[in-house]
Design goal:
Layout (H helix, E strand, L loop, with lengths): L7 E2 L6 E8 L3 H9 L7 E6 L7 E5 L2 E5 L1 H4 L2 E5 L12
Antiparallel strand pairs: 1-6, 2-3, 2-6, 3-4, 4-5
Length: 91
């Protein structure tokens, strides 16, 4: 494996822990996400995401909340991995 991590939108990933890579949107959108603890470099857990649609349930810093798929489609993430050996973090 080459060590390169794939970047996806939060809308397109399954349950798991991810790191925010970047945000697409205006200042108000970015400020709203920052108020929720979502900013580049922040870990975000996807708790629930249904393929058919509906909101995505996230856990950030111990708080759970739902965001719509429109918001999630502008949040770019990569899977969080243990920096020592490349394995996924487990709780």
């Amino acid at each position: 494996m080459n060590g390169k991590k794939s970047v996806n939108t939060l809308e397109s990933v399954g349950m798991g822990v991810y790191l925010v890579v970047s945000l697409g949107g205006g200042a108000g959108f970015i400020r709203r996400l920052a108020d929720l603890g979502i900013y580049p470099g922040a870990p975000v857990s996807v708790v629930s995401s249904r393929k058919g649609g509906g909101p995505i349930i996230l856990s950030v810093k111990g708080c759970r909340f739902a965001i719509g798929r429109g918001m999630a489609s502008r949040i770019y993430v990569k899977r969080a991995q243990d920096s020592k050996n490349g394995t996924r973090k487990r709780k």
